[in-house]
Amino acid sequence: MYGKAFAPEYQGALTTLSVNSSLTDVLAEGIEKLREAERSGHPAEAARCGLAVAEAHRRLGNVREADQAWKASYRTAREAGDTGAMAWALWSGGTLARQRGAFPLAWRLLGLAAELGERAGDIVCRGYSLAGLAETGRIQGDYEAVGRLHEQLLAEARRRGEARHTVWALEGIAQMHRNTGDYDRAYELFEEAAEIADRAEDRRGHAWALRGLADILSVRDKDTEKALELLSRAEAGCRAMSLSSALAYNHKMRGNVLYRAGRHEEARQMYELALTEFRAMSEPRGEALARLGLAKSLARLGRDRDETAAELARLAGSLEGSGLKHVHRLVVRAQEEFELDTEAVR
């Protein structure tokens, strides 16, 4: 049995904030409480409030501000001798590094966060940090390396009855099944995640689960209208909470659904919107996926074959050394789809 979802990253004076609080509200209150703690000379409290500020900035796509905030939180926590707060700050920094595509840094910071979380006896921080490591590997396409870790974390979350973490793990495992072609199993897992998130009032997790279900309905069942309906429901949740990254990925997925349905002009528009959103938040993985979808849509709309080949080659070049193995495979698949030379991306 799962309880109501909660946000452990909202700490100190901010524990009353809901997992569904608008990020603009979180940011405003976080800054206010941070300043109060600083004025009162309470560094441990300042570090905890600074964590919420860092996370709000990150999820709003304010990369520079998020980077400054998590580092300030870590320094303050270290000065206060608060190992748990140091661990959470490192988790935030590692999550930001993954979002920015700095995967080696993400591995290092999240690994340190897990170690410090365990040392501090904070099992939630340890779990979130290990989850961050698992997600980093999954995003890079190393499914074999992190598949077992996802399953382990899912089992731990189920035992604790922690809805939000269970939903995250289910969605990660579902995405790996989807990307390896097991659509039925992926759908089952996304469906379970959506049900748990809905009961636990976890709007963020619910929006991601609906996106996953829409993807499967589109690619497996060719049910375009139902997929678009689910994406519209997910988008409403993203907008209510100001979830910039989730909203951009929602728009990218809408482009995918429209592209598969042969509605290439509508798909082009959505990919262009998503590309603008990803670039605004310096999100390289999302940017690469949106560029790929845009290139394919333009090709279907009659773009010159050589221009399509050149764009895919440029995209492949930008992915070299990035660690985004799955995206790289998608670029190769696109070249094969349009019967272009694939040597440039091998």
TrEMBL record:
TPR repeats lie at residues 167-200. The keyword Heme does not apply. Keywords: TPR repeat. Signal peptide: none annotated. It comes from the Bacteria. InterPro entries: TPR-like_helical_dom_sf, TPR_rpt. The keyword Ribonucleoprotein does not apply. Coiled coil: none annotated. PANTHER family: HTH-TYPE TRANSCRIPTIONAL REGULATOR RV0890C-RELATED, REGULATOR-RELATED. This is Uncharacterized protein. The lineage of its organism: Bacteria, Bacillati, Actinomycetota, Actinomycetes, Kitasatosporales.
